[in-house]
Design a protein that fits this description.
Structural class of chain B: alpha+beta
Radius of gyration of chain B: 14 Å
Low-confidence stretches of chain B: none
Shape of chain A: rod-shaped
Largest sheet of chain B: 4 strands, mixed
Mean pLDDT of chain B: 91
Largest sheet of chain A: none
Shape of chain B: globular
Number of strands of chain B: 4
Largest interface: A-B, 25 and 28 residues
Oligomer: heterodimer
Amino acid sequence: MQIDLTSFLFQFINFGAVVVVLTLLVFKPVLRMLEERADKIKEGQQAADQAIEARQKLDDELAQKRQEANQTIKTELAEIKKKAEEKSAITLKEARAQAKEIKAKAQSEVEEYRHQLEKQMQAEFNESVLQVTERITGQLFDKKAASKLLDQELKRLSA
Amino acid sequence: MINVTVTTTVDLTATQREKITKFVEQKITQEYQLTEQLNPELLGGVIIKIGSQQYDLSLRGKLTAIRDSLSATTS
């Protein structure tokens, strides 16, 4: 096989021209475009990282706020519970004292009423006994007995 | 003259009257007029009233005293 030098040179020059043309017109714009795209991707990645970092920061802040809020609620609830228990104890104490007072008053009234009733019954009983005594005495004392009683009284008078 | 009233449930015997007279004369030295009264309400015994002074020895009086004493106790 024979090599045509002229044709070879022509082909060589032609290839070089194509390489130059491609380098200038295609390779550099494509390379630039790829670099720009890489830059955009890099920027996007950085933005995404920043967004993730911001999100993480927000999540942390939220968690901290939530924890603080829970702690505050817990503290306030404990305080409210303590106050409620104190108030309840005071109310219970007052109620017990009041109940004790009412009970004592009622007992006193019952005792007073019972005492009055006993006195009334005693007085009625005494009166009944005296009335019966008077009645029986009036019936039992004939003249002889009455005279004898008179003698006894006069004897006592003389003494 | 002082009025002396003797109240009984039965008529006085002479002995009883004498005892009463003796009692009255122990109490007063003045002249007096003795009046006898019957009152069955006394139940027994005697009430001798010398002027404003009264000596209640009746059964009614004793019962009244008991009643007053019991009333004072129960009131």
